[in-house]
Design goal:
137 residues; mainly alpha; 4 helices; 55% helix
């Protein structure tokens, strides 16, 4: 189960962020090109070029679909294990009940904001904050 959770985390990190490894990989390719053609790649700071693709080959979409399908399978396995573990913990079969709320209030943004502060080592606690909390959520 730990292997599955680690893979989910790695996939999320790689897919949702520009990973440092992607930048390092690109720099390795650039270094090799400069070594192969020293005069061709002079240091030019202006313009700075960025790549924007208008279209993608179908293989990209197939790969994205395959990754999403694999992640869904992993999520399902983790959820089943969590439900099993929780049932053991409480000593009976557990049930999930969905609570439908029409509109998510802006005050509920406190949770991701605090989470972001924790990740950036800027969290100082909730004292003095006007924290939104709805017992129905």
């Amino acid at each position: 189960m730990l292997t599955i959770i680690n893979q989910i985390n790695n996939d999320r990190n790689w897919g949702s962020h520009i990973p440092e490894s992607l930048l390092v990989a690109q720099m390795e390719i650039v270094k090799k090109k400069i070594e192969e053609h020293p005069g061709r790649y002079a240091a030019i700071n202006n313009p700075i070029r960025i790549v924007e693709f208008e279209y993608y080959e179908g293989a990209w979409l197939v790969d994205l679909y395959r990754e999403a399908t694999n992640n869904i399978k992993r999520f399902e396995r983790v959820l089943q294990q969590m439900k099993k573990d929780y049932s053991i913990l409480i000593g009976k079969s557990m049930h999930i009940e969905k609570v439908l709320i029409n509109t998510r209030p802006i005050g509920d943004l406190d949770i991701p904001q605090i989470s972001n502060e924790i990740q950036q080592n800027k969290y100082t606690g909730i004292e003095g904050r006007d924290i939104f909390w709805d017992d129905n959520l």
